[in-house]
Amino acid sequence: MFDYKQYDGLGLAELIQKKEVKAEEVREAAIREIENKNGVLNAVIDTFYNDPEDVAQAESTGNFAGVPFLTKSINQEVKGRPLKSGTKLLENILADQDSEFVRQIRNTGVTILGQTNVPEFALMGITEPAYYGPSRNPWNPDYTPGGSSGGSAAAVASGMVPIAGANDGGGSIRIPGAFCGLFGLKPTRGRTPVGPGRGRVWQGASVDHILSRSVRDSAAMLDHYQMDRANAFMAPLFNGSYLEASITPITTPLKIAFTTDSPIGTTVDQECKEAVHKAIKLLEEMGHSVVEIAAPVDGKRVANSYFMLYFAEVATTLTALEDRIGRKVTFNDVEPATWMLNLLGKAVSVEEFLASLKFWDEAAIQMENFHDDYDLYLTPTTAHPPSRIGELDQTSFEKGLIKIVGGLRLGGMLKKSGFVEQLANKSLERTPFTQLANLTGQPAMTLPMHLTKDGLPCGVQVMARRGCEDLLLQLAGQLEQTDSWVQVKENPGF
Q1: Where in the chain is the domain with CATH 3.90.1300.10?
Q2: Distance set, CA 301 to CA 261, 305, 312, 362 (Å)
């Protein structure tokens, strides 16, 4: 019997194409992995193993024909299945059509077997929804796989599937990629489809793609996306092949800027710094010029603009849900943090929100100018290694305060109290590096370059000018061949 877990997506597709293994054998192997491991990892919250459409997909001729796949349970609707989004409010509401992302993913030939766990409304950098329970890191189940694509990351890192759907509005591909030892690319704004019922997600901050164990799987999937006419944004055109780029060495030395300092002034763990310095040593050995200099963007304004987006989007989401469920959403319907963000969103003025969006454009221009001098910008992906499950829970006092204020609907008072800033710092102190690329629309990737002394993965983030995913994939493809690249097969747990 073939060793299913040793192959990436393209590797499995090649076996099927050459008839060395049947698509049904691959599908059955994936189902066994899910059934054997999900009881511990809680990565998959909905399975549909016998969907006739997906069984038929195994006979297609796409690049990933017959390859098992899991979608992320937010913004990746699968017709006839609930898009649970980490909340009990949506567990019984069925999608009436595939999202455009899922439709295009199906065209690659993948076999969709289920949907993965997410934090409620994908709002956290950990995946610990109260209603569905926490997803756990395959490297050590006592730790988080990150979020919001934590279920997808756990599924891929544990060998359930070689690739899984993900999206990234503030680091939700890169953070779990870093925590689980995976490759994770957030494409340029407008590169991937968002329709049919929407033209943007989180004002364009969020984009869909995948998490993978290999660089080439991510590149090959990126090649497949077609322009979505519903998309409010258009990425710069690329006429080449991303897959070809991922196996093409860089022959011209690059100028690369880096920093290990947190953009919001919080601490950065030594392990995360060490990951960056290991990458720098490799880059210099490859002939590239590496200079220590931080991006010319005010990190605290990035954080504030990011939370302004959070507030407004959560309030809008809950209001829209009221039409779908036919009643008002109450405090008891959602988690305390979600309710707090909802109240804060209702307290945000139009002037505040538009000023925040204006800053996005300013930051994007600053980074465009920065990339005139530096080809790439390198940082830790996260400021700290994975936290333990439950470590970042709100305290009883915090939950009690939110309940009191929520009952009185005093969002404005909460906004002025300083309590919000405390929670914001608590939320971003572990993950302050990823939000910049979401606001500016740049492509950014996490590379699995380090294991901590506790045996947990630690990622390195690399950002490029808008439209330059090919350069990122070239670099990733070269680094993947080095001994410093963390292989999931090293994973001691699964």
Answers
A1: 4-248+483-490
A2: 16, 6, 17, 11
Residue 148, preceding bond cis, omega within 30 degrees?
Answer: yes
8 Å CB contact between 149 and 126: no
Q: What secondary structure letter does DSSP report for 203?
A: G
**Could you give the 3-state DSSP secondary structure of residue 230?**
coil
Q: Return the bridge partners of 376, or none.
A: 256, 464
The CATH architecture of the domain made up of 4-248+483-490 is: Alpha-Beta Complex (3.90)
**Nearest 5°: phi and psi at 460?**
-120, 130
User: What is the C-alpha separation between 229 and 422, in angstroms, rounded?
Assistant: 41
Q: pLDDT tens, 150-193?
A: 999 999 999 999 999 999 999 999 999 999 999 999 999 999 99
DSSP secondary structure of 84-107: -TTSGGGTT-B-SS--HHHHHHHT
Separation CA 319–CA 307 (nearest Å):
18
pLDDT digits (tens, 9 = 90+) for 191-235: 999 999 899 999 999 999 999 999 999 999 999 999 888 999 999
164 forms beta bridges with: 70, 211
Phi, psi (degrees; rounded to nearest 5) at 187 = -70, 170
Residues marked active site are found at 72, 148, 172
Structure-block tokens of residue 65 = 């024909």
pLDDT tier at 488 (50, 70, 90 boundaries)? confident
Nearest-CA neighbor of 478 among 252, 277, 292?
252
